[in-house]
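Data deposition worksheet. Section B asks for the primary sequence of the deposited chain exactly as it was used as input, without tags or linkers unless they were present during the calculation. Section C holds the resulting structure in token form. Section D is free text for depositor observations; keep each observation to a single sentence. Incomplete worksheets are returned to the depositor.
Section A, Depositor: J.P.
Section B:
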Amino acid sequence: MSMRNSTVRAVNRLTARWAEAHGGDAGTVFTAAGVWPLLAPLADGAAGPARAELAEALGLPAERAAEAARELLAALDGVRGLRAATGLWTRADLPLEEAWLERLAPGSHGVLSGDAESGRRALDAWAARRTDGLVERMPVTLADGPNGTRLVLASALTLRTRWIQPFAEWHGEAAAGPWAGRPLRMLHRTTALLDRARVAEGPAGAVTLLEVVGDTGVDVHLVLGEPDARPGGILTTGIEAVTRARPVAPASLLPEGRPGPGLTVATVLALSPEPRLTVRVPVFEVRGEHDLLEQARLFGLEEARDTGRGHFPGVSSQPLAVGSARQSAVARFHAEGFEAAAVTAVAAAVGCGVPPRVRYRTRRAEVAFDRPFGFLSVHRTSRLVLAAGWVSDPLAYREPPEKTLEEKLREEAEDWAEEE
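Section C:
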């Protein structure tokens, strides 16, 4: 199933707004593609100001949201290397509107016992199972008692892709900047595809993008901005560039010198006439824990969290208000590939070598991610941004432990045995 352009634009709009709102320089990862399919059924069942606010956050009319969410989740689950799932848990005494249930995306439907501890175990098990253990806990607050949590709506996205061309990894250091002098697990790669590197000009200044192609339908784009630019501005420019809302200049057409952050371009004498792009980027793992209610207006939840009254008559005849909305996410970038996972949950409660001989002049480019940068995982066909994040603290290189005398003797004995 293909993704509707209107839905892709709506999800990418929420991603860009979330990126722009990202404050500080701390590393993180987030996925609006995990939040949007939960806001949609809430909008479908909401009324009054909460319905209008959720529709504005979604970027689609509330009456179209449920169908769009079903189609989006089905399309995501059909992408090779990507798994998408939803779950609904309700108290046994909570009546649900059948029409709303029929419009939900297919998924598991469990029962909340009312005991927070047992409910927590069941939700955590679902999160771990749906993300292959990348996210071990459901990011939800369960409240006990007669006015406690009545409903939990959750989504899980898991992405795994391997690079078409793997990187080589060895010890490295940044030449300057906040990582200078730190031993890092540095990845290196050279390709003849010069235009994997591109430059976009945005309000935050120039941004260099590097496309790393996966063997599924998803690629990862690394995004490096000017040293003094805000992460939110850099990511926003990157999102506009990868979704083709902002023009980009490929490395083959850029002027020589330093046409973009971390990027150098030159004409050199070489044995081969092929252009060459050399890449250097550190291994990284980032995690994000997001309380969506801290930015409730961004996600259309300001009105819906008011417990003074109910907001979702299309969901249940009992008055409901949003009690918590959170996301836990993780992303890993290494020599062989990329993994990312996110679980999002909304809970509702009762509301009130030797140099070769030179022959050719050819173009060479180098791009080095030697200081904090952003990343975007993007579905290649639709240009849907699946996850976005910021890398502030890459993984350190550590010397392998010294072998014990016993280990050395055992290896020596094995070598002798092979020779015999």
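Section D:
Residues 5-161+286-350 form a domain with the Antithrombin; Chain I, domain 2 fold (CATH 3.30.497.10).
The mean pLDDT is 90.
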